[in-house]
Amino acid sequence: MIETKGIAVLIDCYECQAKVSDSAASCPKCGAIPADPIRALPVEVSDLDMRFGSMFWGLIKLSFAAVPAVIVIYTAWTIIGGVLNPMLHM
Ligand SMILES: [Zn+2]
Predict the structure, then answer these.
(1) pLDDT digits (tens, 9 = 90+) for 66-88
(2) How far is the CA of 39 from the centre of ligand 1 (A)?
(3) Which of 1, 10, 48, 70 shows a CA-CA span of 20 to 30 A to 39?
């Protein structure tokens, strides 16, 4: 078998593990349509990376947003407690 295209990449058929050109529409041996991992992988990785990144930054933003809320609640609780406690113990 002579490879005519210099840029063609041979990939393993996911069905029969035969060498299939990535430009081939289907496996010449079993007819399976190649999954094309060479072109599919960067998309999958970047998609996964993006989802993980947004989830990570979402958590960071959430924790930063939670800090002032906690301070406000703690301060309010301390003030309320400081006012109410002497009144309750009078
Ligand atoms: Zn095959």
Answers:
(1) 888 888 999 999 998 888 888 77
(2) 18
(3) 1
Q: Distance of CA 77 to CAs 13, 25, 28, 65, 71, Å? A: 65, 68, 73, 19, 10
Taking the centre of ligand 1 as the mean of its atom positions, its distance from the CA of residue 41, in whole angstroms, is: 20
Chain centre distance of CA 48: 3
Around 85, how many Cα atoms within 13 Å sit in the side-chain half-sphere? 6
- Ligand 1: centre distance to CA 45 (Å): 25
> Which tokens go with 69?
């809320």
Q: Give per-residue pLDDT as tens, 8-23.
A: 788 888 889 888 887 8
pTM: predicted TM-score of the whole model, two decimal places: 0.30
